[in-house]
Design a protein that fits this description.
Structural class: mainly beta
Number of strands: 32
Radius of gyration: 22 Å
Oligomer: single chain
Shape: globular
Number of helices: 4
Helix content: under 10%
Strand content: over 45%
Number of domains: 1
Length: 462
């Protein structure tokens, strides 16, 4: 079969001021079928205690595991035939990784068989060893999985027993299971099964930055060391925050009446957006008690003074095509479209930036495609949801959690970028973290925008 040599993988590092530089290249040798089916992978794992990083690079023949330090200098490399590694098994998806000092455990989920494999990569011994791990019982339905606290967690529902289930998988492979009863709220629109009520949540790390389109999802699960919190926006009832403590699986639920909208959690603040005719309303609640902390109303006639800066309208096609300021009246009117959401992240100076976004997918676009680049919890483009108006939305960039010594950088690994026309209207609030008082000031572009623009520009030059 004719081979197609793709341009080398570039790893770009982004600083708080969004400067970028190419720090690593890797050649891929792929056949045309593999490119079309996305059977290559370029994944970056980090947030390890020793500030190291792990690159997983797969093509037709081999899987290479590359250990790098915080400056992205290569410290070790193990190459294996692709069929002898978990990344080379069809339908295997990387859940996450834990480890340090040149030894890493990676958990893979086989989406067709619903089983997990634990893979140990040991650079000191130059070995890659796989072992079977968790398999859900016939009565359990998968909800979410992620890595944290030097463990892997798999959340499931047991519809027959009416329980939420938490599996903990340690670095040694030891598995513990804990469960607790969970009652679907009486005002929920889907009450037949727990798995239906909590189905397909977008898995997100607390305080991490994501692509703004992630805010359009109606079910999200935010994880942090002490707990996992499901946020369910129900058009026909209250928004529910279901908290599951780790690792003991105590379950609590709080219903918050905000109306039909979308929500986002940052620490102990739940930000929600509700759109009515001619007005955007943002609520800030305490997710544990349901207490309303602040309310912000923005319309054509009032509320503009609360905005951090003038709203913007941007056009994207593989990269940023154009950006222009938009008056508040026109920006508010744009939120009558169906695809809209709220997204929030702490800023470098400790404030909270809340972004309200609406997306216009009616713009004519070219065909887009993307390879398999990693799980939502550790970075990569992910499918962003169901089709809108018959057109599939663009993939979502989900960067790594920003912790410890990596707090000043975000990294990106991508071989083949997405091609897609769409428009986005942004309305931004900048809030004092203690008082939630709105402040004016220029906000930084989302790192996901910088990444997409950087790679799109680089790809265009080739």
């Amino acid at each position: 079969m004719k081979q197609l040599l793709l341009a080398g993988l570039s790893l770009a590092v982004f600083s708080p001021v969004f400067a970028q530089k190419k720090v690593l290249e890797y050649p891929f040798q792929l056949d045309k079928r593999s490119v079309e089916k996305g059977e290559w992978a370029a994944q970056m794992q980090r947030d390890f205690p020793d500030s190291s990083g792990l690159l997983i690079l797969k093509n037709n023949e081999n899987t290479d595991f590359v250990c790098v330090d915080r400056e992205f200098s290569v410290k070790g490399k193990i190459g294996m035939p692709v069929g002898k590694t978990a990344p080379g098994v069809r339908d295997n998806e990387l859940v996450g990784s834990i480890g340090k000092d040149g030894r890493y455990e990676l958990l893979f989920n086989n989406t067709s068989q619903l089983v997990y494999t634990l893979e140990t990569v040991d650079f000191s011994a130059s070995t890659v060893v796989d072992q079977p791990s968790l398999e859900l019982t016939p009565d359990e339905r998968f909800l979410a999985h992620f890595a944290g606290n030097n463990n892997f967690y798999v959340l499931a529902s047991d519809d027959k027993a009416g329980q939420l289930v938490v599996y903990t998988i340690g670095a040694s492979g030891a598995i513990t299971r804990k469960s607790n009863p969970f009652t679907i709220p009486a005002d929920a629109s889907k009450r037949d099964k727990i798995s239906a009520y909590l189905s397909q949540p977008l898995c997100l790390s607390n305080r991490s930055e994501y692509d703004p389109i992630a805010g359009t999802q109606m079910r999200k699960v935010f994880y942090r060391p002490e707990d996992v919190r499901f946020v369910v926006n129900d058009k026909n009832g209250p928004t529910h925050v279901i908290t599951v403590t780790l690792p003991d699986c105590r379950v609590s639920d709080k219903a918050i009446n905000i109306g039909p909208g979308t929500s986002w959690l940052v620490d102990d603040r739940l930000f929600s957006m509700v759109v009515t005719k001619g007005e955007l309303t943002v609520f800030a609640h305490n997710p544990a008690t349901g207490q309303l902390l602040k309310k912000y109303s923005i319309s054509a006639d009032a509320g503009a003074e609360m905005l951090a800066e003038t709203p913007k309208y941007e056009k994207w096609n593989h990269k940023l095509v154009s950006s222009k300021e938009q008056d508040v009246k026109k920006a508010v009117r744009a939120f009558s479209d169906d695809v809209k959401g709220i997204w929030a992240v702490p800023t470098e100076d400790g404030r909270v930036m809340v972004m309200l976004c609406t997306f216009d997918f009616s713009i004519q676009y070219s065909r887009w495609s993307t390879g398999s680049t990693g799980p939502a919890t550790h970075g990569g483009f992910q499918p962003s949801g169901t089709a809108v108006g018959g057109n599939a939305p663009p993939p979502v960039w989900v960067p790594n959690s920003v912790t410890s010594t990596f707090s000043t950088t975000l990294s990106y690994v991508k071989l083949k970028p997405a091609y897609r026309w769409y428009g986005r209207t942004d309305v931004r609030l900048l809030l004092d973290p203690a008082t939630l008082k709105p402040m004016q000031g220029k906000t930084a572009r989302p790192v996901s925008d910088e990444v997409e623009d950087y790679v799109g520009t680089a790809e265009k030059r080739r």
